[in-house]
Design goal:
The complex is a heterodimer of chains A (about 120) and B (about 120). By secondary structure, chain A is mostly beta strands. Chain A is about 0% helix and about 50% strand. Classes of the chains: A mainly beta (about 120), B mainly beta (about 120).
């Protein structure tokens, strides 16, 4: 079974600063996908970034980037130049690429506050 | 309408009521999902449909009954629920269940309160 752990229930950052959200996971699969989802107060869950485990290069998406450490099973999210609109609950998730790779395992989330 | 929509956004029901949640996706996807999001707990996958066929029932009690009449619509029929079923119910869709096309897109959710 897969597990995803987000050890920071809450984080805060000053506007324009950089913040890193932590995520560790455990899986017996050799190939899998990792995701960060954002859930703003409006509740719409939005995909932030996706990483294929077989790719060594860290995924980036504008101000969002990940630090993927496969051996350590770590998948942190870095948000640069934080904006007020980044305030949300952030969920880390893992899926495997076997026959049931649609089964996302989510962490409990990190609530990010952005201070003006 | 774009993306994944859900109605109603809020629902309050008694334990003896029967109600239904509706999800519609406008993305041309073939797979749809129901999740339950309770406070302080990770999202829990409930059901998965692929091309209208149920492929996953994650040990969900029978008081929750899903229906998928076509690839664009997904319903969750509710009857004789318990107060502990109060939660945010999220619908999601993906183009497929495998490979690079399995990224899931979520709806805004239905906030359900069972009295």
């Amino acid at each position: 079974a897969q597990t995803v752990t987000q050890s920071q229930p809450e984080m805060s950052v000053q506007e324009a600063e950089t913040v890193t959200l932590s995520c560790t996971y455990d899986t017996s699969e050799s190939d899998y996908y990792l995701f960060w989802y954002k859930q703003p107060p409006s509740r719409q869950m939005i995909l932030v970034i996706r990483q294929e485990a077989y790719k060594q290069q860290n995924a980036t998406e504008n101000r969002f980037s990940v630090n993927f450490q496969k051996a350590a099973k770590s998948f942190s999210l870095k948000i640069s130049d934080s904006q007020l609109g980044d305030a949300a609950m952030y969920f880390c998730a893992c899926s495997n690429s076997g026959g049931s790779n649609y089964k996302l395992t989510f962490g409990k989330g990190t609530l990010l506050t952005v201070n003006p | 309408e774009t993306g994944v929509t859900q109605t109603p956004r809020h629902l309050v029901m008694g334990m003896t009521n029967k109600k239904s949640l509706k999800c519609e996706q406008h993305l041309g996807h073939n797979a749809m999902y129901w999740y339950k999001q309770s406070a302080k707990k990770p999202l829990e996958l409930m059901f998965v449909y692929n091309f209208k066929e149920q492929t996953e029932n994650n040990s969900v009690p029978s008081r929750f009954s899903p229906e998928c009449p076509n690839s664009s619509h997904l319903f969750l029929h509710l009857h004789t629920l318990q107060p502990e079923d109060s939660a945010l119910y999220l619908c999601a869709s993906s183009q497929a269940l495998a490979g690079d096309t399995d990224t899931q897109y979520f709806g805004p959710g239905t906030r359900l309160t069972v009295l």
